[in-house]
Amino acid sequence: MPFKAFNNKIREESKEEAKQEHSSYIYSHTHTHTTKHLTLLTKGKRSQSALEYMMTYGWAILIIVIVAVILYSMGIFNPSSSVTFTSSGFSPFTVSSSLCNNIGYKIAVLAGPIPNNANSITINKVFLTSATGANTTTAGYTLTNPVTLKSGQSTTIIIPNVACTAAKVHYSFSAKIQYSYTAGTLGLQTVNTTGTIAGTSISGKPSVLTSYEPITITNTQSSATPNPFQQMVNFTSSDNGWTSISTGNFGQNVEFFYYNGTVIPSWLESYNTTKGYAIWWIKIAEIPAASSETVYVGFAPTSTNLFNTVNDGEAPQIPCGSTPTSSCSNYAEYDDGANVFNYYENFAGTATPSGWVLSGVGIVQNNGVTVEQSTGVGTLLTSANTYGLDPNSILDFYGSITNTAVNSYTLGAGYMSGPGGLSGASTSDYGVGAGIIGGTPNNWYALSVTGGTQGNVNSGIQPSSKIVSVYWPNSSSATILFDYASPIDITAHIPSTTQQIGIGGNNQETQILIVQYMRLRAYPPNGVMPSVTFGSVA
After folding, report:
1. Looking at the predicted structure, is the pLDDT value of residue 27 above 50?
2. Which of 216, 143, 129 is nearest to 174 (CA)?
3. What are the pLDDT digits (tens) for 109-118?
């Protein structure tokens, strides 16, 4: 083959191979690109499908989750933990709350529009039938004091003969409320209204207590008590036999509590088992105007000691007997006064209390404060008005006087301004309180000092251990009581910013005045302590 022809053939074969390689490259590139495109299209369709799924069913899933949370919070999945209640019926009343425990059954009733345009409506009786979860299936209760309500007013009724014996147990009742009203020519109408109530029982009487007694505290005044409020509870031998239950280590087996079992801080002031009385103070919440609150006093076995320094206690001198001495090792052993009163000091030990200043001579602290012999002026008083001193506070102190000498002296305790206090040592001294003055030993006096000039306003009260109460309704007068007896009103000037609690004297003799404790408590509405009535021991 000629060389030229051979060369041309080689050239043509090379061109053909190049065409094939180009075609192969184009195919390969095109196939790869198409595959990637298809893959992206497939992924895009899958993502779009997932997004459409979430958009379609996501709201349904969210709704299911929300419903589950609501049902759980309502206790549907754990009925024993729910304390909610349901009620229906009872027109013209609404049962706004329902509680049941081992004390009794408690409902709050709100009066709606009264039939026949009557002015008020009176609840007389409550009947329960078909009861479950309680100690009885049928019960009737006649209110000891029928409750009269106007439209929009409410009341709480405790039915003591129906109780839930354990906490977190479902209960239900068919109930009937009997009420009456007087309307125009119709006269007196007595009507029964029916309904149903259900709920879950709660805790009640503390388990350590073997018996209890309801106490109804009634505020008769047109204004509410302060919050918190120190309520006096005065037990006597006629109060349903409580003295026989609390015998033994007197008072130490006694505890106060609310319906739900919460312990109420309490402080035993004094007792006398021979005469059958005891005075307690309890720290409770506000009682609205013209309304009542029911609390409970419970009794543990007489061998039980519930006293502590937190919520069950007694006055500091009680463990030491009627005449405490500085050597008594049990002084203020169970004193919880600081948790009951707005301010409290028991002068335990020999160290001057924090916030108090001792000046001059003649005053000794040793399990109480004793004003002793001196020829000068001595005072122990708070350093500043930091304890809520105002006309809404009552200052009480427990003091005794013992003296046979007749001399020129002035001793007292109360509100003071200036180091001289009630001794009236200078024209800058002001004060009001109670004590004794020279020339008439063994007598308490209501004392006042204005600008260093002192005067006594009563003929004297024979000595003994006394609870002395001092308060002032305005800046120009004060009131003093001895053992909560008839008040003695005196003229007194009380500086608006410098009141201090103090004990002081001038030219003292030996052991004339002893003060065991001082306390501040809330002034009751219009000076009237709410009344206390006792129920039956259960």
Report:
1. no
2. 129
3. 999 999 999 9
